[in-house]
Amino acid sequence: MxxxxxxxxxxxxxxxxxxxxxxxxxxxxxxxxxxxxxxxAPLVKRVSPxxxxxxxxxxxxxxxxxxxxxxxxPQAGERVQNSLGSGVVVRPDGLIVTNAHVVKGADEVRVVxxxxxxxxxxxLTQDExxxxxxxxxxxxxxxxxxxxxxxxxxxxxGDVVLAIGNPFGLNQTVTSxxxxxxxxxxxxxxxxxxxxxxxxxxxxxxxGGALVSLDGRLIGxxxxxxxxxxxxxxxxxxxxSNIVARMxxxxxxxxxxxxxxxxxxxxxxxxxxxxxxxxxxxxxxxxKEVFAEGPGAAAGLKRNDVIVxxxxxxxxxxxxxxxxxxxxxxxxxxAVRVIRAGKEVTIQLKLAAPPEIPARERSAxxxxxxxxxxxxxxxxxxxxxxMGLAEWRPGVAVVxxxxxxxxxxxxxxxxxxxxxxxxDLKSVADLKKRIAAGITSVSIGREGMVSTIQFR
Length: 456
Hints:
Layout: H1 2-6, E1 8-10, H2 41-47, E2 51-63, E3 76-89, E4 95-98, H3 100-103, E5 108-112, E6 118-127, E7 132-137, E8 160-165, E9 173-184, E10 195-198, E11 210-213, E12 218-227, E13 236-240, H4 241-251, E14 264-268, H5 271-277, E15 285-290, H6 295-299, E16 306-310, E17 313-314, H7 318-326, E18 333-340, E19 343-350, E20 363-364, E21 374-378, H8 381-386, E22 396-401, E23 416-420, E24 423-424, H9 428-437, E25 441-446, E26 449-454
Antiparallel strand pairs: 1-12, 2-3, 2-5, 3-4, 4-7, 5-6, 6-7, 8-9, 8-11, 9-10, 10-13, 11-12, 12-13, 14-15, 15-16, 16-17, 16-18, 18-19, 20-21, 21-22, 22-23, 23-24, 23-25, 25-26
């Protein structure tokens, strides 16, 4: 579509997504003109002290541009870069949530509270796949103002929300709007690609700030916007609080979110598939393959089952499945609703950690050959989870490409090397043997598409 080509997804801030639960309670509507003359002031006074400024300092090495450098003169210098963002205190002991891109690579992180006090912050953990980071400030036993989290599945389109942050360094800026969409997929922002969308004005510097409901609870962390200019156009995205809660639960120990594995390969239900399966609408994921000894096989999941819900939350596409799994824990047993032979069936599936089988065999490829400069590994469920893939298949994955390398002309991290010389590829060892014998063609898998490059 034309607007997709015009709008640039800018990682700055935003509002997130989730599917509204059937039992969600709508917020009350105004019944009279007097009801419309309300103010958000009491709510803002209660929640804004928990939203903080985050200032970071990063020392970057930059090349010296001298026409005639003296022998022995350093060819690179250092430049200090400062940036700002927002954060939300989620525990009274000073635990703060923000976006990972706010603190990425920072040498120093300082937090400024709403009362202008400053604290040095320690980065406990950061997960770039979900663009979330946890910080801690030490108040010597002081109890800080904090926000409780609300179940983001309870949010509905049309609910009034407030966005609080520090856009352009303007401290404690509050904007209002509504939830424009739930369960919004916005590719290229983070691994879950699943957000709440809002029209509350969000601008640079709001990254990591709070999106709150009218009951004063946190429903999302502002993460990104769509914009032509970099400023707000009323399309913002926030990472849902259910993902944030999972990050808080495991991040204090320096852990990372591990998305459980179903043990099945799936694809989105298209209109043609929906017609073939006799479905009322094209929604859900059809099971293409069930892996032996995986959790799906143990639970009785079968090929051609159509997964339509997980824990009573609808599964419409790959993004919704990734999000739902990200909010669950390994070894948890969940109800999975499927359509099988035209009938609805519910199975109980015990989630498992994605196994690293086969072993990675990480290898940096070099020499005079087309893939020189690429680093590859054997694909496994664990590698697929780290790369944010909804499914996996045996083969070789590209995890790194050296800047300026020949391989960078046609492969990039996240690609699958499916075949060489017209023959399917099974492992890194297999690829190395093919390279030694000489490569005349490579088939690359990327975002569901396959491209074959010929070499002379």
